[in-house]
Q: What sequence folds into this?
């Protein structure tokens, strides 16, 4: 079994130090701009490491949902490399990616599957949905979804509109590849908070 991505953080920091010829990384006393640049570079090294892991990952086709006894937990590399994660990525029609947000979507769907909650006539409430695939996918299961979102002006002031982390209308979260527009309009509504 491979080490989880976070246990390899020391390797990433070591590579970062070597690249920038640093003997230590100490953010104390650094300017905010310098700290931001260091964090950004470390984050980019993490992304590159994740991409390198993905190149070696074998993802089977035609997966089926399975119950794995998922427990409450934090995101782990072994989850992203699992069949259940790949299955839910396939259902959302997104590629498998080593990313916490994708893990959250898949985790939610897996837990719903484990507890037999992906069936018609159920209702769900999403907090701060932004532009994400879950409302469309859940509507395709004939589940009624209320997606909530922060007021558009407040979202804009936080910069969430520019990064697609906010939605201004229910149409912005409809994904045609996951659900028909007719079913989506029937099953999903937006509440601005």
A:
């Amino acid at each position: 079994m491979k080490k989880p991505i976070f246990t390899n953080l020391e390797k990433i920091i070591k590579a970062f130090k070597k690249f920038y010829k640093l003997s230590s990384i100490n953010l104390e006393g650094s300017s905010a701009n310098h700290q931001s640049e260091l964090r950004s570079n470390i984050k980019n090294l993490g992304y590159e490491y994740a991409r390198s892991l993905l190149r070696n990952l074998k993802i089977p086709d035609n997966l089926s949902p399975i119950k794995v006894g998922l427990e409450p937990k934090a995101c782990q590399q072994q989850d992203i490399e699992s069949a259940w994660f790949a299955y839910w990525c396939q259902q959302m029609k997104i590629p498998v990616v080593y990313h916490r947000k994708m893990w959250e979507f898949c985790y939610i769907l897996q837990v719903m599957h484990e507890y037999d909650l992906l069936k018609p006539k159920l209702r769900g409430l999403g907090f701060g949905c932004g532009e994400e695939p879950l409302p469309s996918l859940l509507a395709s299961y004939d589940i009624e979804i209320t997606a909530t979102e922060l007021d558009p002006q407040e979202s804009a002031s936080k910069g969430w509109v520019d990064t697609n982390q906010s939605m201004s209308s229910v149409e912005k979260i409809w994904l045609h590849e996951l659900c028909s527009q007719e079913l989506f309009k029937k099953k999903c509504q937006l509440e601005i908070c």
Notes: The chain has a mean pLDDT of 82. The chain is about 45% helix and 10% strand.
